[in-house]
Amino acid sequence: MPPDALDTLLLDAGGVMIFPNWDRVAAILGQHGLSTSGDALRAVEPPAKRAIDEARRIAASDDAQRGGAYFDLVLDGAGVQRGAARDEALAEVYAYHQSENIWETVPGDVKPALTALRDMGVTLAVASNANGVLHRVMDRVGLTPYFAVICDSCVEGVEKPDPRFFEIVMERAGGRRESTMHVGDLYHVDVAGARNTGIAAMLLDPHDLYPDADVERVRSLSELVERVKRRRGA
Known about the structure:
By secondary structure, this protein is an alpha/beta fold.
């Protein structure tokens, strides 16, 4: 559960507030003669993400390496044939990501949830493994004003699950361990990293990918708001 005196909430960005623009990815694939749809890619994304969230893989790789494996798994799952055309399309996707960030889709419940959390007096901070352009995309999709702090691992030179990254975010947000919680979507990155820093953790798990995980789970940010509201009112 969130700490009773919760006053600082660290939120992951990708997979929690912003999601890949699979329609854009499908369009780029189509330009290279590879037929699929955004819906097909979205449908196979959850198990692909779960597959990369394994303790030994996390320990032996960095976020960029896992990102490449993630896209390969999604495209494999959607039946997109491997080969030169796929490689060229992915290079174009990656170029867009490096410039603008392909994680640019914001579900409709995100801004209302952030507004509700902020109205409760909770300090919000972003703690995200990203590629150096997180601030740009947060500005572009209108999420920046909700946050006191936005920390991009590429900019900071250290990434989750390293406790040093969480400590940077907490220090800038003015948070204390006993009253801070982190919410993310990857157990071995977000939950393990937060716990190793000495702060509470919650897992956003809308697809029930972690039924046996030893952590409190929510299916949406709207549910997170209700959990925090009940806890702070207890």
